[in-house]
Amino acid sequence: MPNAIKTRRQPLEYYLGLEYPIKLIPSKVGGYVVEIEELPGCLSEGDTSEEALANIQEARQLWIETAYEDGQDIPLPRTEREYSGRFVVRMPKELHAKLDRAAEQNNVSLNTYMVHKLSERKA
Q1: Where is the HicB-like antitoxin of toxin-antitoxin system domain (predicted)?
Q2: CA nearest neighbour of 81 among 6, 1, 2
Q3: Domain residue spans in the chain?
């Protein structure tokens, strides 16, 4: 599974106890579709938001139990992941030079300038 974090296998109850963010989407034809993005293909639906949210919990449990029984890695929810605060970006030399000049004009390091620019944007 993409973006799965490799960890030592935990008991099934551990994975069933994890709380994953749920995406609730109003359907164009009525009702709601729900999805857990970290669990690929884990979808459900319902006529009301309450029904859809109840249905996704059953789908989540079945998804995790099936993946566990098949020996597949089960991704952790985003809220459980640890981030180092560091990543490497490749870019054209010209862009690198342009960003470096902008940082210098603002009397800050390139790293500080980039963090500032990235924080101005919504992800």
Answers
A1: 20-120
A2: 6
A3: 12-80, 83-122
Q: Is the domain defined by 12-80 classed in CATH 3.40.50.1820?
A: no
Say if residues 75 and 54 touch (Cβ distance below 8 Å): no
pLDDT digits (tens, 9 = 90+) for 11-54: 999 999 999 999 999 999 999 999 999 999 999 999 999 999 99
| pTM value surpassing 0.70 | no
Q: Is the CA virtual torsion 110, 112, 117, 121 positive or negative?
A: positive
**In the chain, where do the E strands start and end?**
23-26, 32-35, 43-46
What's the rounded Cα separation, in Å, for the pair 27 and 47? 9
- At 10, phi and psi to the nearest 5? -100, 165
